[in-house]
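The material for today's practical consists of a large collection of protein records. An example says more than a description, so a record of this kind follows:
***
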Amino acid sequence: MPSSNLIRTGGGLASAAAGLLLVLGHLLDLGGDPEYGTVLGGTLVLTAHVVLIFALVALYAAQAEQSGLLGSLGMVLSVVGTTLVSGVVLVEIAGASGTEVDAVLGAGLPGALALLGGLAFLIGLILFGAGSFAGSAATIFEITCAAFVWLGLSLLSGSSASARQPTRVS
């Protein structure tokens, strides 16, 4: 099998696996702790983000010539964003297991990194899709909708650090 076909196949399988793991992980988180979810759900989400890094690189490699500067910038932002989000998910897994992690995800630099990671991931996916499918408005719309579905699931499951309100200590 030529390497370009292997990259396409691997990227497609990794993308499908990441999507499935994200959906399953967030669904499992709905039944857990309202703030951090479940350990199994968080582990599936973390695994999905790690697989997603490989999927993004493989998808970019398969389309590098046609994606241009916009696609390249989107791929880099997506990988950086999902890497930062992976760190947040790892802390949330610790929180789901009963460890006190409020200081880690609270205000300051860690809270800002959690917010910036999610935004970089979302903006990167939109740019990556726009660069990869230049001129196809329907495909860009579909990718944007998929990104918002991911954000919605994150908000519903409570796994997005930016979605949590800081608690007041009296």
Q: What stands out?
A: Residues 74 and 128 are 4 Å apart (CA to CA).
